[in-house]
Amino acid sequence: VVVHGFEHATKSKSEAWKHHKTVLKQFVTDFTSETSMPLALYTVLHKPIRDHISQYILLLTKLNEALKEGSEKDVVTSAIKEYVKLESFISQVLDEACITKSLWKSLGYKFTDMLCVPERRLLEDSKNLPISASTNRSDRILLFDDVLVLIQGNSFQSFDLKLVWVDENYREKSAPGLYGLRIITPEETFFLSAKDPQMKAVWQWKLNQAVRQALNGKRDFPLWGKAGEGTEPPSCRFFTYVFRLEGKFKSASYEGEWHWGKPHGKGTLKWRDGRNHVGDFKEGLEHGFGICLVPRQSEDRYDCYKCHWYEGKMRGYGICEYGNDMVYKGYFKDNVRQGFGILENLSAEHPFKYTGQWENDKKNGYGVWEDKDRGERYIGTWLDDHRHGQGIVVTQSGVCYQRTFHADKMVGSGILLLEDDSVYEGNFTEDLTFVGKGKLSFANGFILEGTFTNKSGQGLQTHGILNTSNEQLDERITKAQLGLEEFPVEKRWKGIYDQFLEFIHSGCKEETEESFTGFHIQTSKELRKSQEYLFCQRGTEDVSWKIEDILEELVQHQGLESLQSYLEKALKSSLHPLGKLLKALTIAFQATYSGIGANRHLLTMAQEEVKYYAKKIWEFYQGLLHLALEQKGQLPAKCVDGEISDQKACSVVLPLILPCFYPELFMLYMLYHEREDDLYCQGIVDLSLFPDIKLLEFLDVQKHLWPLKDLTLTTNQVR
Known about the structure:
alpha+beta; 28% strand; elongated; MORN; ALS2 C-terminal-like; Alsin; small GTPase binding; repeat
């Protein structure tokens, strides 16, 4: 009943005084002067309620004495306890209010203007409980129920309690006689030191209670329980904060998880200039997967990086969609493109695609460049974004040449293979005009050696010797194979293998897998589905390939037959590391040999490359198996010598991976054997013109196998 009474009173409190103005006036008539106003309010607002409560306590105590032992007595006893708590709560709240009021009077108006908020209460004051802050910068320390304030001279600093961590396990080395507490806030760390351990303990307890209550958004009841009661505030919190001090995050607002004063866990950073970063943080730095938007200065567009971060910098696999319609998919290190990567320009003007090695944000090493406007593909080495060193250029018309490049310019002589089987060795220009000394071998076996000039309007002129003694050109020339000495297979696609091997050396941790092996999303359309766009959830599959399970399975499938079926399954999966490696190699292979790159002079280069893939995949499998056995505490089998390992790669892996490369390889085989195929077809056409008997004679078919209707025989012979 009493509780209901109180609830009713609180609900109608604001109305009550309006209805009972007359009663109120009678109360206040006795107190006319200004000074006695507080006393009047106390009489009206506090006294009746406090008297009420003490009467209830008295009544319940008497009732308690009269009751016999049993359930009712327990109920009454617990009720008394609650009322006693309520009584102390009221007096504590009033004491707090009185202390706070006297503080506002004693502080200068400059501070009260800034700090005085009606709801704010003072919990502790360093004048009352002496404690000092490090670096002697504060004259006074005030702990309120929502902020911690340090006052020095005419200025003050305030720290929101929700983002204050108190570390007690700290001893100041400089002053051994002092007992210190380390106070950690997002941008500052300072120390509070007390003269004796009791003082330190009280402050520590009060700070922790105040932080916990601020985080919970409600006060304890009663305000201060027995000393040592109440749990410590959690070290992990969720909060929004705007950074003020100089540094990487200056004037950025961070909303997310915190741990001991630093962003830690999932969060969102927003800068005033429009930059955004959503992702994982660790100890105050971007760490893990994150999506970063950077506005471009000139136009109203953004560069969007979906990437892995390591200690505040991009590192590992990422996809960057630039505001100028270019897309980069590949590896980063220290915020720049480094390792294997694919850069594609999707805009209508000057579309191109580069697949290959990057170093320090520039194309460096082996790479393939396709210029879709010119219908050309360059396969070769790069230096600082320029074609540099040996290179092969394949054109859409079927012409193919090999030259040395120096900073994008062709130097020295080269070999030019024309589509009609003729071959030119010597110097030629970018538009494939012969200049200077050279040797031109025609398909019919004639060879022209001499000097070539090309004057405008006069066509090609030559001065030299024409040799007509050869009947036919040597196959070695017409079917010359390029690129084998210039780009040995070991030098191609190092960036892909390096990442996968590094993944094994790092111990194949689940959380680093994507950073090393990439997340293969087929198209940017898939990425734009809102959910995936944010979290980059990668393709779903029936089989989940967790690294622990993968290593476990590897150990079980070591027999030849089970190994083959296991590898087949693994290589088909886009989530298994072996499958991802094969996928990356397929992309590189297609970039080189499909479309424009289908040229018969590249067949051997492609064949060698596929064999090397098998070898590397086998090595990678061996590495995974080695790791799996080590983790299980078993000793891996002794190293097999290289030749046996290569045989294994050829017999086990090659048949499994070949189907991925069939389309390109078949095309190259077909072009390579085009002349023979044409002759063969012509032969069949010629034969088909023969009448049947002639054809049977030509093919030396035995007479007794000829059809009867084509023979004139006697009845006896027929039988």
